[in-house]
Design a protein that fits this description.
Blueprint lengths: L7 E4 L6 E4 L5 E5 L2 H7 L4 E7 L3 E5 L3 E3 L6 E4 L6 E5 L6 E5 L13 E3 L14 E2 L9 H13 L1
Parallel strand pairs: 3-10, 10-11
Antiparallel strand pairs: 1-2, 2-5, 3-4, 4-9, 6-7, 7-8, 8-9
Length: 152
């Protein structure tokens, strides 16, 4: 996903909730945790971490779903598509389900997380891999490496 493609538009399966990304993701990822497997009904969830200031719901009113815990997972109230997550403790970012973008052509997961829970056959082209989540001190290096990755 590059600056030339902004803004990026996306939405749920039924089209009742729409959103816009006005800023590029700071990193893209695939999460293999069993929670993401269950919520996405797939082997992993794909997401793009976007600055909250660059994310806007443009139509509809998402509702909180999932576990209703500290991480707030938002869904379409009609079709129940999992749209985005507002992670606990990092309110300056929104984790958008990248497969809901209208144009997914520029998306590729840079890192994969929770590989300790991944299905044995599941593979991604991710450059970085973590058994669980990266440590907070890893993020400056990861963000710099992602900037190089997306520039290719």
């Amino acid at each position: 996903m590059s600056v030339e493609t902004l803004p990026q538009e996306g939405g749920c399966r039924c089209g009742r909730v729409r959103f816009s990304l006005g800023l590029e993701p700071v990193i893209t990822m695939a999460c293999h945790c069993t929670g993401c497997q269950k919520m996405s009904s797939s082997a992993f969830s794909l997401s793009a971490l976007v600055p909250a200031s660059g994310f806007t719901v443009t139509q509809g009113c998402p509702v909180i779903g999932g576990l209703h815990g500290v991480d707030r997972h938002y869904f379409c109230p009609h079709c129940m598509s999992w749209l985005f997550t507002r992670p606990h403790g990092i309110d300056e970012f929104v984790n958008v389900r990248a497969t809901l973008l209208d144009n997914t052509r520029g998306y590729a997961p840079f890192m994969e997380t929770w590989t300790c829970e991944k299905l044995a056959w599941a593979t991604t082209p991710a450059v970085e891999s973590f058994a669980q989540l990266p440590e907070p001190q890893d993020f400056p290096r990861l963000l710099q490496a992602y900037a190089v990755f997306k520039a290719r």
